[in-house]
Design goal:
By secondary structure, the chain is α+β, with helices and mostly antiparallel strands. It has 10 helices and 13 strands. The protein has 2 domains: about 170 residues, 2-Layer Sandwich (Ribosomal Protein S5, domain 2); about 130 residues, Alpha-Beta Plaits, CATH 3.30.70. The strands form 2 sheets. Strands 2, 3, 7, 8, 9, 10, 11 and 12 form an 8-stranded antiparallel sheet that branches. A hairpin with a 6-residue loop joins strand 10 and strand 11. Catalyzes the ATP-dependent phosphorylation of L-homoserine to L-homoserine phosphate. It catalyses: L-homoserine + ATP = O-phospho-L-homoserine + ADP + H(+).
């Protein structure tokens, strides 16, 4: 017997919502774009295998792998319910590159905890599990952020609340938007991306950030895609992080010339995204980015919609 859980890639910040917006992504061609975790019965308490395109980027020692930390965290959560964790053989299929700005660690975390919860017949509720996912993410990034784990787990576009017992809320999204997502094949650590940001911002920048975020949320709730797209501008991170991404300025110019409504950095980079409404134009930009923005064979470019479903159990085999 076994169970396989899948957790999609995600884009955090979405330009206008630094640390408070995140969206789950799914390619329009139907491919899975995220990590998968398989759990099988075992004669020992725990074992972990890593497979997949980016498995070679993971620590050799399984105790340093975030999936093992998820196992320990889930074990502690079960203990609070006076339940014991079952012996498990876990297999992580690592399909997202580490340090890509696509929620790679969140995808592994969410898939692992979704699989563990399914394996134990869902004893832990969604809110508690999401809190645990945030805690696990914090072990990697140094502080708890939900802007990747929340959309990865719940799907769609999530607005982080983290007040009054509410972690996030789903925003209405625009089905006609295509998200052209390009990962150049290089790595930028979250720590490096945060260190390049200034310690303080001007009052005018803070006001612009708040105004645009408020307008974007309003536009989502009132079905105004043109207004929402105009608000997808970043005054907090992009002016500084863009210098870490080779070819970013040229890619932005080509995206604008190709009909993109907006372009920005996914998470802390180096992945970039462009929002478009015309599929032919999106395919044209995808071709240009593949030929000119990608740095090596590790890179890729997908045309995506928002993944409204989020994490789910797929079946029993990888």
């Amino acid at each position: 017997m076994s169970v396989v859980a899948y957790a999609p890639a995600s884009t955090a910040n979405v330009s206008v919502g630094f640390d408070v917006l995140g969206g789950a992504l799914t390619p329009i061609n139907g491919d899975l774009f995220g990590d998968r975790v398989k759990i099988s019965s075992s004669d020992i308490a725990f074992s972990l295998d890593c497979v997949g395109r980016y498995a070679h980027k993971l620590p050799v020692d399984f105790k340093l792998n975030i999936v093992y930390q998820c196992y320990l965290g889930y074990q502690a959560a079960l203990k609070k319910l006076n339940q014991k964790i079952l012996p498990v053989k876990m297999t992580l299929e690592k399909n997202l590159p580490v340090g890509s700005g696509l929620g790679s660690s969140s995808s592994s975390i969410v898939a692992a905890l979704e699989a563990l919860n399914a394996w134990h017949d869902y004893p832990i509720d969604k809110t508690t599990l999401l809190l645990l996912m945030g805690e696990m993410e914090g072990q990697i990034s140094g502080s708890i952020h939900y802007d990747n784990v929340a959309p990865c787990y719940l799907g769609g576009m999530q607005l982080m609340i983290n007040e009054g017992g509410v972690i996030s809320e789903t925003l209405p999204s625009f089905k006609e938007w295509y998200w052209v997502v390009a990962y150049p094949g290089i790595t930028i650590s979250t720590a490096a991306a945060r260190n390049i940001l200034p310690a303080q911002y001007r009052l005018s920048e803070a006001l612009t950030y708040g105004r645009r975020l408020g307008a974007f949320v309003h536009a989502c709730h009132t079905a105004q895609p043109e207004l929402a797209a105009k608000m997808l501008k970043d005054v907090i991170a992009e002016p500084y992080r863009s210098q870490l991404i080779p070819g970013f300025k040229e890619a932005r110019l080509v995206a604008e010339q190709s009909g993109a409504l907006a372009m920005g950095i996914s998470g802390s980079g180096p992945t970039v995204f462009a929002v478009m409404t015309d599929l032919i134009q999106a395919q044209s930009l995808q071709h240009w980015l593949t030929e000119n923005f990608l740095q090596n064979d590790d890179g890729f470019c997908h045309i995506c919609h928002l993944d409204e479903q989020g994490a789910r159990v797929l079946g029993t085999e990888l």
